[in-house]
Amino acid sequence: MIKILKYTEYLYLIVAFFSLYRIFTDWNVDRNSAYLFCFFAVVSTGMFFFRRNYRKKFEQRKQDN
Questions:
Q1: Which of helix, strand or coil describes residue 58?
Q2: This prediction's pTM
Q3: Burial of 13: CB neighbours in 10 Å, binned 0-12, 13-18, 19+
Q4: 3-state SS assignment for residue 38
């Protein structure tokens, strides 16, 4: 279970990096699309840190029992 949680963290980072790539490539071509990917990058980065914190609390709780 913990390994799955660790992999999902990094999926959020992959989405964030892909979004950053799309921001840089689409900024001068399609500004509305770039803004959408800005939103995805911010949310994905936040979700990465949220899930990482959640996993560490889960691991700590498992060790305490």
A1: helix
A2: 0.84
A3: middle
A4: helix
